[in-house]
Input
Amino acid sequence: MRRRVSERYTILIARTGKEPRALSFRPVVVLLVALTFVGWAGVTGYFYARAAALRNTEARLAQLSEQARELSLQLSREQSRNDALAGEAATMLKQLDQLESQIDRLRERAGLPKLKVTPTRGEKTGGDGQGGGVPLNTEDMLKLTAERLKALTGNLSSKIEPALEQTLAREAARPVGYPLRVKTYIASGFGTRHNPFGRGYEFHDGVDLPAWYGTPIYATAPGKVIETGWSNIYGYHVKIDHGFGYRTLYGHMSKILVKRGQTVKHGQVIGKVGSTGRSTGPHVHYSVFVWGKAVNPVSFLEAPAYAKR
Ligand SMILES: [Zn+2]
Output
């Protein structure tokens, strides 16, 4: 067996002009130094690898969060666009409701029945009344709005307008107000009355409105003069046809200022107050006929509600 006492590792460091320096180590020291180096390198390598992985993860995380941010931005843009559309649709539906009630008023004026305000969502939903007030999504709301608008517009032009024109023409033809522009009163009303010239009763087919001799008499609606001249009852009188079954008669005139066949406007002077015919003093006898039948002129003396505003 060999003794391993003096086995050593020596490092010689050469120096210019001087003796070399010798550094001598025991093997165990060399081994320790070597082990220390290997350990340090391993630890460093480990941490280096860990740090690299961490950096990788961080980068990936940053990328992901950027993507998420983008997505949420996109989503909120979409959401606000959707909200805006829904708001718009709701506003349109509200306006439609107002439009419908306006149209209903027009229909009432035109003498048509009221609209049946039910959403036109096809025949299927009409079953048990459901689906009427259920909030719809934006797309459905817009579709519904467009359908209702189309229906209303069609209704307006095809039904209401012609009926309304007819109504307006009829209303314009309706006699309105007094045939006098001076203060007067109903001296003798419509209906059965005592005979002012003798005994018994008679039917008075109009109202008697006293005024000074010569006071102008006005047509109470536009129309065409169909009768002028003398009669034993009404004296000098004028009869006007206004259309739509309306006719008016003005009696006991002192002077007739229109000719038969002449067209007159509402408010046009047609004659002057007198006491001709069967009369006891200056006044105008005013009759209103509807489809040939004398009616009480009282309801025609006051302007109807639609004409008052
Ligand atoms: Zn009379």
Observations:
- The CA atoms of residues 50 and 56 lie 10 Å apart.
